[in-house]
Amino acid sequence: MYMLQIDRVRPIESISLRNGLFWEHRQLSRPEMLCTPSIDHIDLFSADDESFRETLDKIGKRLTPCKTGFSLHYLFDAIRSREFLLLPLQLDDIWVTVIARIQQKQEQEFNQMGDFSADMKVTDLALVDPLPEGREARAALINSRLESIFPEGCIESALNLKVHNLGVPDIITDCTSNGHWQTGLIAYAVSREFIRRLKVLQHRQDRRDGTCGDQDFLWAPFEEQYNFDTYRQSLLAACAHQFIEGSGFKARLALEISGEDANYQRELLSGDRTNILANDEKWDIFQTKTHTHAIPIYYNPSRRNACRPPSVTVENEEDDNTAMSIPLHSPQVEVTEEERAATPNRSGAPTPDTLNRTQEPRSGDRPEENGDQRKRSRVDDDDEAVPSPKRAKQVENSGNDA
Question: Which of 69, 61, 199, 47 is nearest to 137 (CA)?
Fold first, then answer.
């Protein structure tokens, strides 16, 4: 667990991956369906042929004293009693995951083969290797080792063996990283995903009284984008719970804050992750501004001659400085000026022409247009206040006539 918390690009060790896988295995409703053996302490998949032969002799089958059967190594007890085998392997710091399905041979198969040294067969096999460099060599090594290991447990490959490709995306390597550290996290992610699919299979079997027709989804492609930080954190949690349960729940989780004197470099774990969901995760019970989100209001575009209303400005009720302009239009309908002018306004909404008329400035606000009118008005007022000599004579004559 400590190694998982100090460096995100550190290669995954076997003890971490095994403990995390053991805990995931126990989450099955029927764990006896799957076998996750620990074989890291023996050189069964070593590139050295001599070491492999020595190890194979140690776990090889033996004839019983009366020569009526075989005595098998305890490793094969779990493999033979389970339907599925999930085996992550570490080959020179590169993790490759082996997934196999083992079933009992049928009676007619014994008659055809004429050999009773193998009573079980491998019907399905998948090798998950996400690193393209050296993949063919590793696959050849694993297949050759499996062909020698399975017979020691009275297991042989079926004549119609199905080899599946889970379609795991390849690791992209560069000059800064060879990608070896990623293979361990991918092995854990693939193993956890296969266990999840077994949970689905068990659920379907329970609903169909122990029978399940379609099992092809078990070997479907691994459709997931790699998220190595999530894999590492999930593996860390699985290892922690494995230890807690192994201690009889005498231990519990705790968070440790490293001091200034600790040799802890948190930048090795942060990577380039940024939290884009900070607004979704915040919880502020003292927040005073509530209505801070504005959305556009669209008019009904189904009406052929619908007029597009103008944009308006909505001000926040809490703060006048947070005004937001909302466009009230729909990008789906284009209305020409001719259509807008010829269309009656049945909806009652203000049209651009109406707004122009209602928002025209007063006469005193436009001196360039109303200057002559104001000048004439002042002249008339002056005529009434101070009459001219000609007008005074006209008034005098009209009085004399009267």
Answer: 47
